[in-house]
Specification:
The structure is a single chain. The chain has a domain of 129 residues: RutC-like (60s Ribosomal Protein L30, Chain: A), CATH 3.30.1330.40. The protein is 25% helix and 35% strand. It has six helices and 19 strands.
């Protein structure tokens, strides 16, 4: 496995990316903390169990080498293969869990292009600080750790709303559940910098979801773009939970006295208007200077222009090019480029040709190749492609 240094040798923080087969290991080092952004995407199609076995054996080796503990995990795959994939995960990781802290995993529907099975696994892990599980009753719903006076809190809000529940009511319960979990950790939605939201049948009720989210943000004092508060970065994409409920979400909050020194700021894209200007309450990206490392959490991004309009309608290649231009311009406001991406997720509308996407990314997508590729509806019927990412640079 070869590494790609991404920092000045004299810096006290560093970023190294290594890739072998379908495994990408992005290692972020700073005093007292090593962070790993691990992405395992099967390079050779197999059975769902075979793909999961390869992925988790590869991830376990990376964790063992770093002495790291998982903090946040998202598993993307075909819903009909979920039980098989998760059973394999448990079998492969059970010896590891016997020696270290167990962390939660969210299974997200997202079939690999042209087949069923595992699209990939994203695992964020850390070495150095002690990681503490977050539980609600018997349910493991998150992890937390402290470094440099700031606590990172990751929680997963359970899928909510059965067949008799209206989707808007389910969304309200899902977001309020997340707020409740955060409160149990001394945090709240005012401390949230990133959400990942997965909605069943998103095209049928995304407007209703936006109304619920905007209403709750207004209730919590987050919705006024002119205020000193900000709305989190976010991904909102199609994904059926395993139990048939309406949605699920992951949340990252930062809390503690160290937050005051972290320089947290929403980013504004010169090529796009703000999402909240057309009723979707999220920031295009959130930048956090963690002390030597500037980490940009890039929201789900698509081919939308400065007027909030979908562009290159019906043209998959054109939408991919425009999306990557949008992301490049966005992280460019922090002195970064696509080469500074350490992990990414690619969503392609079902029925579209994934080879077109792969070709565009291979031609100049930089770090966009570090992640999982899956089929999923985007929030507008005419949008054929969406992309989210984490980009990092050393602050000198």
């Amino acid at each position: 496995m070869t590494g790609s240094p991404n920092c000045a040798p004299e810096a006290c923080a560093s970023v190294t990316i290594a890739r072998e087969g379908g495994l990408t290991v992005a290692r972020l080092d700073r005093p007292g903390l090593q962070e790993l952004y691990l992405s395992a995407a099967p390079a050779a199609p197999s059975t769902a169990a075979g793909e999961a076995e390869w992925a988790y054996e590869a991830l376990t080796c990376a964790l063992h080498e770093a002495g790291a503990v998982g903090v946040q995990e998202r598993v993307f795959g075909s819903l009909e293969c979920a039980d098989e994939i998760l059973a394999t995960r448990e079998r492969v990781l059970s010896p590891w869990f016997a020696r270290t802290t167990r962390w939660p995993a969210a299974f997200i529907e997202g079939s690999p292009p042209g087949r069923t099975g595992l699209s990939g696994v994203h695992l964020y892990a850390v070495a150095g600080p002690e990681c503490t599980p977050i539980r609600v009753g018997e349910r493991l719903c998150g992890m937390r750790f402290e470094h440099a006076g700031m606590t990172q809190v990751y929680v997963t809000s359970p899928a909510v709303g059965g067949p008799d529940c209206r989707p808007g009511d389910a969304a309200q319960r899902m977001i309020r559940n997340a707020q409740s979990y955060l409160h149990s950790q001394g945090a709240g939605y005012r401390d949230v910098v990133r959400t990942w939201i997965y909605l069943r049948d998103i095209l049928d009720w995304y407007s209703a979801f936006n109304e619920v989210r905007s209403g709750l943000y207004a209730e919590w004092g987050l919705a006024d773009p002119g205020s000193q508060e900000f709305v989190p970065a976010s991904t909102g994409i199609a994904g059926r939970p395993r139990d048939g409920h309406w949605g699920s979400m992951d949340v990252l909050a930062l809390v503690g006295p160290g937050r005051a020194h972290a320089q947290i700021r929403p980013l504004h894209n010169p090529l796009q208007n703000e999402a909240y200007s057309y009723g979707s309450a999220f920031s295009r990206a959130m930048s956090v200077d963690y002390g030597g490392l500037d980490v940009v959490y890039v929201s789900g991004t698509a081919a939308i222009d400065e007027q909030g309009r979908s562009v290159n309608v019906g043209d998959l290649e054109g939408q991919v090019v425009k999306t990557l231009e949008n992301v490049d311009a966005l992280i460019g406001t922090r002195g970064m480029s696509l080469d500074d991406i350490v992990t990414s997720t690619v969503f392609i509308k079902p029925g579209q040709d994934a080879n077109v996407v792969r070709r565009v990314i291979a031609a100049g997508g930089g770090g966009t190749r570090y992640g999982a590729v899956m089929m999923a509806d985007v929030c507008r019927p005419e949008l054929l492609f969406e992309f989210d990412a984490v980009a990092v640079r050393v602050v000198t």
